[in-house]
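During the practical work, I selected for study one protein's amino acid sequence and its C-alpha cells, as given directly below:
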Amino acid sequence: MNPNTLTSRLLNHRSRETAQPLILLAISAGLFILSAGNINLRGMTDIGLIVVLPPAIYAALLLLTFSFIWSLHHSEERFFILLMHCILLIIILHGITVPVEEVPRFNVTWRHVGLVDYMLRNQAINPRIDAYFNWPSFFVLSAFVMEIMGLKDPIQLAFWPSVFNSLLYLGPLLLILRAVTNNKKLIWYGLWLFYLANWIGQDYFAPQALNFFLYITILGILLWSFKGTQAIPWMERLFSFINPRVVLSETQEQRALLRGKNTARRQRLVGLLVIILTMLFSVASHQLTPFAILISVAVLSIFNQISARGLGYILTIMIAVWLGYMAVTYMQARTDVLLANVGRVDQAISANVTERISGSPGHDIIVRLRLAQTLVFWGLAFLGGIRRVLKNYFDLIPVLLAFPPFVLLMLQFYGGEMILRVYFFTLPFMIFFVSGLVYTDFPQKYIRWQPWLAGLLSLTLIATFYFSRYGNEKIDQFTAKEVEAVTHLYKIAETGSLLGAPSPHYPIKFAGYELYSVKFYEDAVLAGDVTALVTAMEEKQARASFFTVTTSQESYFYLFYNFPPAKWQEFEDKMVASGRFERIYTNEDARIYKLLQAP
C-alpha cells in the first residue's frame, strides 16, 4: 500500500474521531440553549424543577452521554474532548437555573450578600453581630474582588457561583484521581460521575463552596507531590533550595542528576507553602472544613502515605489559635452547646435523616429519593472497592480518605445538614470506586459491555439528578417581586425596626445587615395564633415592627409542614381583623404588614 494513502487514511480516521464528538457536543449545547428559555419556574410543584423541564433537555443529556462514552472508548486525543464534555455537563446540570431565574437563589445567598455589603460600607468586621464574622475571610475576599472588578452591587457576585465553583473543582479532582490510578478511563469516568452524583447543591455563593475547593486542592497536592512513606526532614524541606553539591559536582551527569533532585525539592517546597497558605485561609473562613482537612491529613500521616507528616500539627495549631483568639466571641457563647453534641450519633442521625422525612407528599418523595440515592451510591462504591481487591488492586489512599468525613457526624449536627456535608466530602473518593466498578480489568469476552454499563449508570444518575438537586426549588428560587417588596421594606423601615416573617426562606438581610432585627415566627403561624405572634413581636420593643409574607415562604410551609396554601388567606385575614396589623404593601408575590400600637 502507498505510504501516502495509509497516512491519509489515518489522518481521516483521527479527524472523524475528533469531529464526531464535537458535532454531538454542538448539538447538545444547541438543544440546551433553545430549551432553557422555555422553562417556567412558576409551574413547579412540590417535587421541584423536574415538572417544568422541556424534553429537549433530556435529549441534550442523552446525546452528551453517548458522545462522552464513545469518546472515552474511541478517541485517542482524549483530554480536550473529554474536558469539553465535562464542562458542558456542568453547565446543563448545575447551571440550568441561571438563564431562567429572575434573581439569585437560596435565602442564605442573600444573607451572604448582606455580609459583603456590611464590609464594603464599614470597612471592618464585628464578630458580635453575626457568627460569620468570626470566620470572615470569604467575605473579605468577596469585597476585595468587588473592588478590583469595579462592581457596585454584591448581588452581582451571586448569579454564577454554581457553575464557577463546579468548574474550579475540575483541576483538583483530576489531580487526585491521577495520583491514585493510571487508568485513564477510570479517571475520566470518575470525574464525569462526580458531577452526576453531586446533587448536594453546596456550590452557591458561600464559604463552604470555596472551602471544598481548598479541601480537594490540599489533598490533590499532597497525593501528587508528597505521596510516599519516607518522612522529609524539616531542615531539608525548608532549605533544600540551597544545594552547593550541584556546583561542586565533577561530572556533567552528576550535575544533571543533582539539579533534577534540587528542582523536585523546590517544587515540593512551593507545594508545601501553597498547602499552608490554603490551610490558613480555610481556618479563617469556615467552621467545618478545617476539621475535615485535619482528619484526612492525620489519617494519611498515621498510615505513612504522605511524607509531609508535620502538616497535621501545623493545622492543629492554626485551628486552636483561631478558635482561642479570633473566634473567641463565638466560642464563649456556643462552647457548651457544641460539646453537648459530640458523640451523640443517634441524635445526629435523627436530625439529619428522620426529622427530614415529613411535609407534603412530593417533598417526602424527594427526601426519601435523596437518602436512597446516597445509600445506593455508597453501596456501589463498596462493591467497586471489593471488585478492585478481587482484581489484586490495593487502593489504600482512596479508602483512607473516604472514611474520615464520617467522623464529622459524631462531632456536630450542623443544623441537620451534616449528612449532606459528609456525602459531599466523601464524593471525590467514592467516585473512584464507583468508576472502578466499571473500569477495572473486565475479561476480554465481556469488555464490550463496559460502555453499556457506563452509559446505563450515567443515565440512571441523570434521571434522578433533577429530583435530588432541584427537589426544593420551589423554596430555593425567588422572584423579582419578592426582592422588590423587601427593597421597599428597607426604604420605609427605620433603623432599629423589627423585620418579622414566617420563615427565613425569602430574600432578606442583603442590606443594612446590622441596622435591623430580623426574626421568624414559624410556631405562631403553624398554630394560627395571631395573639402569640403579636406577643412575640412586641417582646423586641422595636421602633417599628413589620411582618412580611411571600410566595416562597408559603411554599416552604407547604413542603416542610404540609401547611395548605388556603390557610394563608385565613391567617392573614385574622391578622387584619385583630386590629393589630395593617397591610401597607402588596404585589403579586409578597405582602407586608405593620404592627400597630395597642389601643
